[in-house]
Amino acid sequence: MERDFVALAGPIFFVLIALELWVAHRRGQRLYRLNDAINDISTGILMQLTVLVAKGVIVAGYFWIHANFRLADFPSDSAWTWIGCFLGVDLAYYWFHRLSHEINFLWAAHVVHHQSEDYNLAVALRQSSLQPFFSSFFYWPLALVGFPPVVFLACGAFNTLYQFWLHTRTIDRLGPLEAILVTPSHHRVHHGRNPVYIDKNHGGTFILWDRLFGTFEREREEVFYGITKPLASWNPVWANLHYWVELFEIARKAHRPIDKLLTFLKPPGWFPEDQGGFQPPPPVGRDPIQFDPPYPRALRGYAILQFAILVGLTIPMGMLKESLSLDIKWAGIALVGWGLVNLGGLFEGRAWSLPSEAIRVFVSPLVPLFVLSGPPAWITAGFLALGLPAFLLKQASLVPASPRRGGEPSGGPAEAGGDAALTRP
Ligand SMILES: [Zn+2]
Ligand SMILES: [Zn+2]
Questions:
Q1: Do both 63 and 186 map to the same domain?
Q2: Closest-lying ligand to the alpha carbon of 110?
């Protein structure tokens, strides 16, 4: 169960993120922004929750093809089966990933991973909820060839886990390993929006495929991370939808029916002739960070606590998923999703976010009392109720510290004070 391994690795990811923060602190580097990191991990949580209800659909095709149409029987206790399957998974990943950058409807599902303008281990957790539905098809040839599902899922899990450590600026080039493996340096290039870096280094574990198929690029100039048109939002649901909305808008405006179809099949940057034709990626400006709205200082501790509670609700849901009914899963998804969207709204200073958050922290402890029974109901309700005092305290701290309602905070993004969060529509 590929993504189950990934879910179980969650605590290790957080330990490594803490380690990266410590290294960055010692070196005097600022690698993380709280709002960006929470947004990264929020998209990862939404992906995990999607897989929670749709896992069967995502892996069913592989099982079905292997059971009915496999051309050979490879024994799962042979090292050659594992080596062959791993190379096959890595090759399939390369083509899935490459086409996800070169075909608009696949990019709409992959873009989430590239929206962050920071580059750190939290970005590795930045994942699209829709992508698993598109990626699964690319692995079907391995089922047809005859690699057993258990071997395929383990190789897929390793390939996914391997990519976690690539998302860091704390590791420089790695000598001879650069020729064989995908390294942090190679993958930094992949996340660059510099025109020279766009659509390069798609590999998962081996850099071989990029060298073979002509998409390799060395890290040669400072990398500016993110996408050419910034997402400019901390809403993890909108992160999954924004590019679809853009594509449907282009298709709606297109006069020729064929252009409506081509909108989804052409590469990013393509527009019908009557909308100006192809627009190449713009050169990078001077500022590596394009989206960095100020937020009130009082929000930091509050957001960290609420986020920890939401993560704390997600992890047991992932572990107990076999025994949870669909009702409970949906209730959990709604609660966690609501909280994550609110946190994004608070960091952006959206006017709706404070009332929505007030309702959520008061209502959410009641939900487990309705959907669970016995001690789990009381334990979960008590756990969710931990967020209530934080919300009340946050209100108390915000009220006297709000002399500049409607004005810009004076200390820059990291030092923002007052209630800037309450001022944007
Ligand atoms: Zn990519
Ligand atoms: Zn990446």
A1: yes
A2: 1
Full-model pTM: 0.90
CA of 123 relative to ligand 2 center, distance in Å? 7
Q: What is the pLDDT of residue 214?
A: 98
pLDDT for 106: 98
Give residue 6 CA to ligand 2 midpoint distance, Å.
Answer: 15
How many whole angstroms from 99 Cα to the centroid of ligand 1?
A: 9
**Ligand approaching nearest to the C-alpha of 225:** 2
pLDDT exceeds 60 at position 2: no
Examine residue 220 and state whether it is found in any structural domain, yes or no. Answer: no
Domains in the chain, number: 3
Spatial CB neighbours of 407, under 8 Å, sequence gap ≥ 6:
418, 423
Give domain status of residue 219, yes or no.
no
What is the pLDDT at residue 131? Answer: 95
CA 192 to ligand 1 center in whole angstroms: 10
Q: Give residue-wise pLDDT tens across range 23-55.
A: 999 999 999 999 999 999 999 999 999 988 888
- Which amino acid is present at 137? F
Residue 165 C-alpha to ligand 2 middle, in angstroms? 10
Do 245 and 190 share a structural domain? no
Task: Report the percent of the chain where pLDDT is more than 90.
Answer: 79
Q: How far is the CA of 213 from the centre of ligand 1 (A)?
A: 16
Mean pLDDT to the nearest integer, 64-76: 96
Instruction: State the residue range of the domain holding 38.
Output: 2-213
